[in-house]
Sequence to fold (337 residues):
Amino acid sequence: MTVQCGIFDWVEASGRPPAEIYEHKLELAVAAERAGFHGFFIAEHHGTPLSIDGAPTALLSALFQRTRRLRAGALTFCLPWYHPYRFYSEVCMLDQLSHGRLELGVGRGVSPIESRIFGLNSVDESRERYRETLDTFFAACAAPTMKVSGQDAELHVKPYQRPYPPLWFPSSNRESIEFTARHGYHTAFIGKHSDCKPLFERYRELWDKHRNDPGRHNAHVATPFLARTQHLVIADTDAEAEKLGLKAYESWASHIHHLTRKLGRPDVHKTTPYDEDSAQRLITGSPRTALQKLQEMLRLTGANYLLCILSFGDLHPEHVMRSIELFSTEIKPRLTA
Fold:
């Protein structure tokens, strides 16, 4: 079976001016569309070099203007950080502007340090705000008004896709898999390769059992994607790809641990390029080598969607564009799940 492919991007600070970084991401999205990728997904983080994408809807709006077929979304919109009315309005506008190409990743936000920027001081508070915003969104999609600060605000725009865009929710443990499977969310797994396959098998079991249950959040999606994110650098030779990849991975790892290390806290995930227990492993190589490694990764994880991380750390745009060119012409046509 041919595997679906997408791109995930943190939109990291990399020493270049932000305008150049944003432009590079838009050029990468155009290249992804040209190569037949399914989707392009961006992160949302605040106050960290891991992401200078503090307003995902702004970048997504520009991306949709540059493309015609590529689907795109945030993975995820961190719902506790949004006013429910603003979130609903921006999602509807994006889906209309893109003529129904929005993929809607929703989450609570993994960083309590970032949540404090928005006045949220506990996990319970963030979880409650997440549920409130998501439930309000679902209700608004089917109603003429939304109750906002005691007022019935009229809703003159609905999502282009009905009842709303396809939903994504990241997974990292059995509890999150149980939730995503019962509701049929697309999911992207974060964690060790060895943990991925049994959780995806559990997902498929639960999804099949509950696929006809009433009230499922993602019931309008026929076949869910079970995605694995993968840092990937492809070059003309194995040696060149590894040299580029290791340097970029080191820069990315310093970004993902920036806030916790700044406060003297332990790392949340192990991030080493090649260790089996790393939460985010690195694949580098020539097209032939990279294809072999990717096929083995898909076999080990049971994923049906490859979420490529091609632009990360301080990897220069020239090398990123060469990676996607080689992936598109020499790897993607031969990749199977």
Observations:
- The mean pLDDT is 94.
- The first helix runs from residue 18 to 34.
